[in-house]
Write a structure and sequence with these properties.
1 helix, alpha+beta, Lipocalin, 28% helix
Length: 170
């Protein structure tokens, strides 16, 4: 009888130890996820404050027609101080463009205006525009603390288009 109670007691103790270790691992994972989220948010703030960031594009959503994934295609939008390097795919209607289509959204040029619009605490919205000698292009980039980004592009001579992607955090 005593042996049976000892075995029960040891079994219960073993279950309690396994549960305690499991809870510790869960707590550690939650703490490490929170620390990683804080680190990413700090990198996002640092890049936006320096006006030096790159958005790697994952998908595009034209005004007309279906959206599509462009993951791994190398499309990006880079801001470096007062310069924008726009290497974005385009799908939509053009109203007045040079013969052959022109630069579309694949160019590097000086930024004419740059402002940050107040928004919710977990995101920042940057708006800037440029005149690349073919078209006036306005960008609205919403960057979330987790590094995800939405890019809205409006042109004077083309349909608007939206993109989704993430900041390159290096």
């Amino acid at each position: 009888m005593m042996r049976h109670n000892t075995a029960k007691w040891l079994g219960s103790l073993l279950i309690l130890v396994v549960l305690a270790v499991g809870c510790g691992v869960l707590h550690q994972n939650a703490a490490s996820r929170k620390a990683e989220a804080s680190r990413v948010a700090a990198l996002v703030r640092q890049q936006l404050d320096a006006r030096k960031f790159e958005v790697e594009i994952e998908s595009m959503n034209p005004l007309r027609g279906p959206g599509r994934s462009v993951v791994g295609s190398g499309y990006s939008l880079t801001v470096d101080g007062d310069t924008v390097n726009s290497h974005l795919p385009y799908q939509g209607t053009a109203y007045s463009v040079p013969y052959g289509g022109g630069k579309v959204l694949d160019f590097e040029d000086k930024i004419d205006t740059y402002t940050e619009v107040p928004d919710k605490s977990d995101r920042r919205v940057v708006e800037f525009s440029t005149d690349n000698d073919e078209d006036v292009v306005e960008y609205r980039v919403t960057v979330f603390d987790n590094g995800k980004a939405d890019v809205q592009v409006r042109c004077k001579n083309r349909d608007a288009i939206n993109y989704r992607g993430h900041l390159v955090l290096e």
